[in-house]
Amino acid sequence: MEDSSPNVQGLKASREALEFLASIDLKELQNCLFADALVTVSDTGRELGEFSVTVQKATYDSQPCYHVHANSHGSIDDIPCGTSITAYISKNLETLEQNHHEYVKLQDHRLDRKFQMVRHGDQLLVNKVVTEREDVKKQTLTFPLSSLEGFVSEASNLVILRILAQWKRIPENMVFLSLDTETHLSVSAYKGLGQKQQMVGQECVEVFGIERTVKSVKDAPATWHCYFLPDGHLASRVQVGSPVTMKLIQLPAQMEEDDKDDKAVFEKKPLVWEEDMQLCSKFLDRKEALKADHASYVRQHPELKALMADFLQFLLLRKPDDVCSFAAERDKREEHDKLVTQEYLMLQHITIRKISSP
C-alpha cells in the first residue's frame, strides 16, 4: 500500500467555470433526472455493447443529494471490457463519494482497476487498486479540499454535460480541475461543437455537440465528442481516436410538461449486475450471509440429514423420470398413510373401550 499527497500547486479552475458551478439552480438539476440508454457500435456498424447513464435524487449521510450511475459493457475485437461509475454528488456538484471500476478480460489474464473517491474531513481521499494477473497494487492519494475549488469528477461531468446541452451554449474558457486516467490532478476543458442533424431510428433530429478534453500529466490528452437532444438526452458519444461510437437508436419517451418538474422518466435497460461493483458486492455479502444462516440451521437440526438420506435412497431405488412429481406424490401418499393410521388407532381405542365396559 502506497500513500502519497500529490503536488497540486499551480492548477486551478477558471473563473468562468467557478461562476458556472455557482449559477446552477435546483430547477436545472431537476431537469437532469432521467436515464439514457445507448448502443455501442463499431465503425462498420456492428453492435458491440451498451452504455447507460442514470441520474436521480438520493440521500447521503441523511442529506439530500443526487445519485449518478453510468455503466458501459461490451467487447472490442472480441475482448470483453467495461466501465462502471456509481457516485453521490451534492447540489453544487461536489463529489461526496464515487466508485469507478474498469476491467479488460484478456485471453490469459484480466486487468482490473478500481478507484474509490470519498470526502473525509477537509480532504479528498482516492483509493486505487490495480490488479493484473496475480499482481495487486494499492495506492491512496490525499488531496486537500482547499486546493480543489472547481473540481469535477466523472459523475459530476455527466450532469454538467446535460445542463450545458439544455443551455445550447458553452461559456468561454470553461476549465475545471479533474483527475486524468492515472488519477493525477489535471484540468478538463469544455467547448461547443455547434448543431447538426443525426439519424435516431427512422427520424432525423437536431443535436447539439459538446467537446470535453482532459489533459494528462504523462500521456496525450483524452477528448470526447458528445451530442445531445434539446431536452438533454444523450444522442451520441465518442472518444476521439476510438473505433467505437455510442449511439441512441430510439427516441426517448417525452415527459409530460406538467410532470417534468415533479418526476423523472427512467427507461428500461438491461441489468448486468456482475459488472456493477456495488451490486456485485451486495450480492456476495448477501450470499455469504445466507450460507452462514443455512449452515447454522442444519447444525441445529441434525434430523435433516437423516430425512434427506432416506428420501435420496428411496429416489435411487425407484429412479423416476420426473423427480418433482414423484416427490409430490410421495408426500401425498405419506399424508394418506398418516390419516389411515390415525383412523385405525382411533377405531382400535373405541373397540377396546367397548370390550372393557360392563
Automatic annotation (TrEMBL):
<keyword id="KW-1003">Cell membrane</keyword>
<protein>
    <recommendedName>
        <fullName>Ciliogenesis-associated TTC17-interacting protein</fullName>
    </recommendedName>
</protein>
<dbReference type="GO" id="GO:0005856">
    <property type="term" value="C:cytoskeleton"/>
</dbReference>
<dbReference type="GO" id="GO:0044782">
    <property type="term" value="P:cilium organization"/>
</dbReference>
<keyword id="KW-0970">Cilium biogenesis/degradation</keyword>
<dbReference type="GO" id="GO:0005886">
    <property type="term" value="C:plasma membrane"/>
</dbReference>
<dbReference type="InterPro" id="IPR048777">
    <property type="entry name" value="CATIP_N"/>
</dbReference>
<keyword id="KW-0206">Cytoskeleton</keyword>
<dbReference type="Pfam" id="PF21772">
    <property type="entry name" value="CATIP_N"/>
</dbReference>
<keyword id="KW-0963">Cytoplasm</keyword>
<keyword id="KW-0472">Membrane</keyword>
<comment type="function">
    <text>Plays a role in primary ciliogenesis by modulating actin polymerization.</text>
</comment>
<comment type="similarity">
    <text>Belongs to the CATIP family.</text>
</comment>
<feature type="domain" description="Ciliogenesis-associated TTC17-interacting protein N-terminal">
    <location>
        <begin position="16"/>
        <end position="243"/>
    </location>
</feature>
<dbReference type="InterPro" id="IPR047501">
    <property type="entry name" value="DD_CATIP"/>
</dbReference>
<dbReference type="GO" id="GO:0030041">
    <property type="term" value="P:actin filament polymerization"/>
</dbReference>
<dbReference type="GO" id="GO:0005634">
    <property type="term" value="C:nucleus"/>
</dbReference>
<keyword id="KW-0539">Nucleus</keyword>
